[in-house]
């Protein structure tokens, strides 16, 4: 009762901006679009093929989907001010500018071309009504389109007033029908199963109950959209339902099913005054044309203002007068409609246009459903709707789309997805937030809570904490992390700042600069900066505290220490990482060699040497896993892993070859085994001679102990003549042998 009182009560005089009221701006265009041509020309066919009860069931099912969508619209409309653009504005502010553009652009063309559809339909009915005059259908359609265009360009208020007369004509035609009489002796058929399939009949009828967007598209012209949209939309849906639920009863009681199917204008024969039905058909087509030519330019205006259209089309966002009417957009829409009328036959694209309207309803339901499920503090609609109704509406829309035309549904889907990626690749920045971050946060929360702290060899992959400092200075560290993860693992680029060098605010700005730099270089990574009196202390603090629940970096990637004065503290830091159950990878590059594997490897077969020490646990298995991940990257997919082992005794060569060959075969990583006899040479000489031409050389580090510093220096000495070296120290209590999954 409160809604009805608000709906029919006169508006109070306020100092608000001028605009359309609920009745003229929402209820009238929505009702007229719902009560369209299908009601006059196809409802008898529906009753004849489905029977009375079947037709009533179809009406209830179809209106339920529309009602759920209307509820979703009301929820979104009462949460925020809906400005120009209607459905596009709602979707873009909820699901993001890309999704809004993907739906908004097709919706605009669907609305613009619908003007031609309705005016051509009007012309066809006039020609059929006056065959003796030999009228030209094209000329009539052009004249009507021009008239509709002039009305809409002149003023939206004038167009709305014209719709009042059309509504009166439709009301007269319905009254004439209700007070009419039977055309023959009737045997009422409650259910019919031997004619058209139920869902085929449903598909024909469903477009009759669409049209609630006619009022939503006028959102920017409403005086109070938060109040008007829910009241006017629900009132229009209710009006349409009451009319559609009663019409089958009158049709079934006045003519038999065969007559209802054979005569599209059977309502004219039943009516008290037959010509009133013709006037109603003309009014329905004209009202739909006016609604489309009013709604389409406002969608175009919003698309231009949000920057979705190309820069040279930004002028389409201009508005005129105190009501900000899109006169330029209306003129463009008028030209498109005229061109479509000249083509004449729009039957081929009509189903796809219907799909675009249904896609809009589908996405609106999804928007409200997602907002309802997330229940974010920012989503506080005054018209509360349970998220289940929105999801039911979405499922219903998707099902109806396939029922009406599967091919048109697929074509519309391809168009929407293509536009989505086109808008996305332009990297538009929006000044508003949307629900996507909330969705990812919900998924992230669920994933974190579902992931325990136990070691999982089945799903292990490196999650990197890269101690790079300034990314520009040690960019190869980030390149290596990206190559080893290839968008499958997490990378955190970190740096330790001196105490007092940055306050919290400036530190946040620096983090953003680094993120932007990484993004420009095509690297998807997190960024973490900390301040500490000493860079080694800061790195240890990062490893100790950084992460969320069980989601912590399991692999620390850092550069080699070239300064002898820092060597002891550097090795102590590695030992502390090892104690913290982290894998440690040290990238050592030779500055005296100009060869760069990151560039050269694109044009040559990558050569990777893994020096095996004979142990299947720890370093050896981790090195093979990392080498395999490197070769899994498309940039190094042609790479070859060479697993090398040095033996000192010639009698052990054969057995070593057999064991190493079996290991390679069992591991299934496409490696080549190579056993090298030392022949009195030291390991340094063998390493230099064997790996001088390799792109990457993997060497295991000894476990940290009291002699770790001299052992690390020994590794540095061994590799001083080699290009790119990767030192590996595996976490002490993780079984990488199971990660390899040896048979």
From TrEMBL:
Keyword Transmembrane helix: yes
InterPro entries on file: AA-permease/SLC12A_dom, SLC12_C, SLC12A_fam
Sequence intervals crossing the membrane: 20-41, 53-78, 99-118, 138-155, 162-179, 199-219, 231-252, 272-296, 352-370, 391-423
Keywords of this entry: Membrane, Transmembrane, Transmembrane helix
Residue ranges constituting the SLC12A transporter C-terminal domain according to the UniProt record: 475-592
Gene3D superfamilies listed in its UniProt record: Amino acid/polyamine transporter I
Subcellular location: Membrane
Pfam family, one: AA_permease
The keyword Transmembrane helix belongs to this UniProt entry's keyword annotation: yes
Membrane topology listed for this record: Multi-pass membrane protein
Ranges of residues in domain Amino acid permease/ SLC12A: 29-464
PANTHER family reported for this sequence: GH08340P, SOLUTE CARRIER FAMILY 12, CATION COTRANSPORTERS
Protein name per UniProt: Na-K-Cl cotransporter
Taxonomic source organism: cyanobacterium endosymbiont of Braarudosphaera bigelowii
Lineage: Bacteria, Bacillati, Cyanobacteriota, Cyanophyceae, Oscillatoriophycideae
């Amino acid at each position: 009762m409160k809604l009805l009182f608000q709906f029919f009560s006169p508006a109070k005089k306020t100092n608000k901006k001028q605009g359309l009221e609920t009745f003229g701006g929402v209820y009238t265009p929505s009702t007229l679009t719902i009560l369209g041509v299908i009601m006059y020309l196809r409802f008898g066919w529906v009753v004849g093929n489905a029977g009375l009860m079947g037709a009533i069931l179809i009406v209830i099912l179809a209106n339920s989907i529309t009602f759920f969508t209307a509820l979703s619209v009301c929820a979104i409309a009462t949460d925020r001010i809906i400005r120009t653009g209607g459905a596009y504005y709602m979707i873009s502010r909820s699901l993001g500018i890309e999704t809004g553009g993907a739906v908004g652009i097709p919706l605009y063309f669907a609305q613009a071309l619908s003007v031609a559809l309705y005016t051509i339909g009007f012309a066809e009915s006039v020609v059929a009504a006056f065959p003796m005059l030999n009228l030209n259908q094209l000329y009539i359609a052009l004249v009507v389109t021009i008239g509709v265009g002039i009305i809409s360009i002149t003023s939206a208020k004038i167009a709305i007033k014209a719709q009042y007369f059309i509504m009166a004509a439709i009301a007269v035609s319905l009254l004439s029908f209700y007070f009419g009489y039977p055309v023959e002796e009737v045997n009422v058929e409650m259910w019919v199963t031997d004619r058209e399939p139920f869902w085929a009949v449903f598909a024909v009828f469903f477009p009759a109950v669409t049209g609630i967007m006619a009022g939503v598209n006028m959102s920017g012209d409403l005086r109070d959209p938060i109040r008007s949209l829910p009241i006017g939309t629900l009132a229009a849906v209710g009006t349409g339902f009451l009319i559609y639920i009663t019409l089958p009863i009158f049709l079934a009681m006045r003519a038999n099913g065969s007559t209802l199917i054979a005569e599209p204008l059977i309502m004219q024969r039943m009516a008290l005054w037959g010509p009133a039905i013709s006037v109603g058909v003309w009014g329905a087509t004209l009202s739909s044309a006016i609604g489309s030519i009013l709604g389409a330019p406002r969608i175009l205006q919003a698309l231009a203002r949000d920057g979705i259209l190309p820069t040279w089309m930004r002028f389409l966002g201009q508005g005129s007068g105190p009501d900000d009417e899109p006169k330029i957009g209306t003129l463009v829409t008028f030209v498109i409609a005229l061109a479509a009328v000249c083509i004449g036959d729009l039957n081929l694209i009509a189903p796809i246009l219907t799909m675009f309207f249904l896609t809009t309803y589908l996405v609106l339901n999804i928007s409200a459903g997602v907002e309802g499920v997330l229940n974010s503090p920012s989503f506080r609609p005054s018209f509360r709707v349970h998220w289940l109704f929105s999801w039911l509406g979405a499922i219903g829309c998707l099902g109806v789309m396939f029922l009406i035309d599967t091919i048109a549904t697929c074509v519309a889907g391809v168009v929407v997805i293509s536009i989505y990626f086109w808008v996305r690749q332009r990297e538009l920045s929006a000044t508003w937030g949307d629900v996507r971050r909330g969705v990812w946060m919900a998924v992230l929360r669920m994933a974190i809570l579902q992931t325990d702290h136990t070691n999982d060899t089945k799903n292990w992959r490196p999650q990197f904490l890269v101690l790079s400092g300034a990314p520009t200075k040690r960019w190869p560290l980030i390149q290596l992390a990206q190559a080893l993860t290839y968008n499958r693992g997490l990378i955190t680029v970190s740096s330790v700042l001196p105490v007092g060098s940055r306050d919290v605010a400036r530190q946040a700005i620096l983090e953003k600069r680094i993120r932007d730099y990484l993004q420009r270089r095509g690297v998807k990574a997190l960024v973490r900066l900390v301040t500490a009196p000493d860079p080694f202390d800061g790195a240890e603090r990062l490893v100790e505290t950084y992460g969320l629940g069980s989601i912590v970096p399991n692999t620390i990637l850092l550069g080699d220490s070239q300064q002898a004065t820092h060597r002891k503290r550097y090795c102590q830091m590695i030992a502390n990482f090892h104690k913290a159950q982290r894998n440690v990878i040290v990238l050592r590059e030779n500055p005296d060699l100009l060869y760069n594997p990151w560039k050269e490897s694109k044009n040559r077969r990558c050569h990777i040497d893994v020096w095996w020490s004979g142990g299947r646990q720890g370093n050896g298995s981790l090195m093979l896993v990392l080498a395999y991940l490197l070769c899994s990257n498309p940039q190094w997919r042609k790479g070859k892993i060479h697993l090398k082992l040095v033996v000192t005794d010639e009698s052990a060569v054969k057995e070593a070859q057999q064991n190493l060959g079996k290991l390679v075969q069992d591991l299934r990583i496409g490696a080549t085994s190579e056993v090298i006899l030392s022949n009195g040479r030291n390991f340094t000489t063998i390493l230099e001679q064997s790996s001088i031409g390799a792109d990457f050389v993997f060497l295991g580090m000894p476990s940290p102990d009291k002699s770790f510093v001299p052992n690390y220096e020994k590794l540095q000495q061994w590799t001083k003549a080699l290009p790119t070296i990767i030192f590996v120290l595996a976490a002490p209590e993780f079984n990488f042998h199971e990660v390899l999954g040896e048979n």
